[in-house]
């Protein structure tokens, strides 16, 4: 099926180049290879057969020649990227300089990186030398991968494949004999999310193993802390400290061999200073650890008045009816219906119960024993 589709659409693109056909969208098709670079000689492929002729196999699987994008082709650049032309390729006028040195950049990942993200990180890390920090993962020490999902080079849906087969069958009766009937053999409703990896990604120095089968640990791994979980400004500062200031923030045994020094202090606590003005910068306000994990708070603003409805609590201070656990004596607890002051944080309650919910509609109240 791949051979028939590729042969047909590659020939169709050749007709486009010679003026016999006028669909320049084909230049970015995965089945057109004469505008791609053969990695071995560094020249364009002459035909689909040259590209598809297997040069290696693993078990019963055959693999094509290794190809690269021809970014000097302006038509390809625009069609493949929505109009973006890579600076310095098509015109040759790029200055080739980076606004930041690789040692001044870090990439922070949480394991969900895949597809285009994995391709980008691969080039930044292995081509440019940018260091990676992974955050989170299982509650254990050791290495962690940043790109934890698919690391193929082309994500393809059944819907796209269906369109390509229709195009090939429409333009070649010969190809139609080798391709499935769309309505009888391949048609799948709502197939846009039926995805597969169409093309492998390999490194220039290791062309025998595709990246989705390689273990790729980050240079440093860090755990989430209460101050970094709720505030990304803190998280980025923590990651920066781990790379540039205090390698002891990296999880034990989590630094890769070619990254940070393995002989460093084991992380024992959150050494990163809390940022106090994040709310003014547009980030969520800081929630301190003692507020998140301080447990129960003193309940001192209970009116000594039992009630059955909110109407019974119509008093200044926005009191409302709640079922509250109280102390009957040192050894006995009781649940009573009392008027309780509503609050939204432990600071503005002045000793009242801290209710972690909307300010006007608290859901529960507890007492510290």
From TrEMBL:
Descriptive protein name: Tail specific protease domain-containing protein
């Amino acid at each position: 099926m791949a051979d028939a589709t590729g042969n047909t659409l590659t020939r169709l693109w050749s007709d486009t180049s010679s003026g016999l056909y006028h669909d320049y969208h084909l230049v970015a098709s995965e089945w057109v290879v004469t505008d791609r670079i053969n990695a071995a000689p560094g020249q364009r492929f002459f035909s689909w057969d040259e590209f598809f002729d297997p040069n290696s196999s693993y078990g019963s699987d055959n693999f094509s020649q290794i190809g690269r994008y021809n970014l000097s082709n302006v038509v390809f650049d625009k069609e493949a990227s929505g109009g973006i032309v890579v600076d310095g390729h098509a015109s040759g006028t790029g200055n080739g300089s980076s606004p930041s040195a690789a040692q001044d950049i870090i990439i922070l990942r949480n394991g969900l990186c895949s597809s285009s993200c994995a391709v980008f990180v691969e080039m930044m890390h292995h081509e440019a030398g940018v260091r990676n920090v992974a955050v989170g993962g299982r509650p254990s020490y050791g290495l962690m991968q940043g790109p934890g999902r698919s690391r193929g080079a082309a994500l393809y849906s059944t819907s796209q494949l269906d369109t390509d087969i229709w195009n090939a069958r429409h333009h070649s009766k010969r190809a139609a004999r080798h391709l499935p009937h769309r309505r009888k053999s391949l048609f799948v409703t709502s197939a846009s999310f039926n995805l597969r990896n169409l093309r492998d990604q390999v490194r220039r120095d290791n062309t025998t193993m595709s990246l989705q089968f390689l273990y790729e640990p980050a240079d440093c791994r860090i755990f989430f802390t209460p101050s970094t979980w709720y505030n990304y400004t803190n998280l980025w500062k923590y990651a920066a400290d781990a790379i540039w200031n205090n390698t002891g923030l990296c999880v034990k045994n989590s630094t890769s061999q070619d990254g940070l020094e393995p002989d460093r202090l084991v992380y024992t606590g959150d050494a990163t200073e809390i940022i106090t003005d994040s709310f003014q910068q547009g980030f969520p306000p800081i929630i301190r650890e003692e507020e998140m994990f301080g447990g129960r708070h003193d309940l001192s603003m209970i009116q000594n008045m039992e009630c059955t409805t909110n109407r019974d609590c119509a008093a200044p201070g926005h009191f409302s009816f709640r079922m509250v656990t109280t102390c009957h004596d040192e050894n006995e607890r009781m649940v009573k219906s009392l008027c309780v002051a509503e609050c939204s944080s432990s600071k503005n309650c002045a000793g009242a119960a801290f209710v972690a919910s909307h300010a006007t509609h608290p859901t529960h109240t507890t007492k510290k024993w």
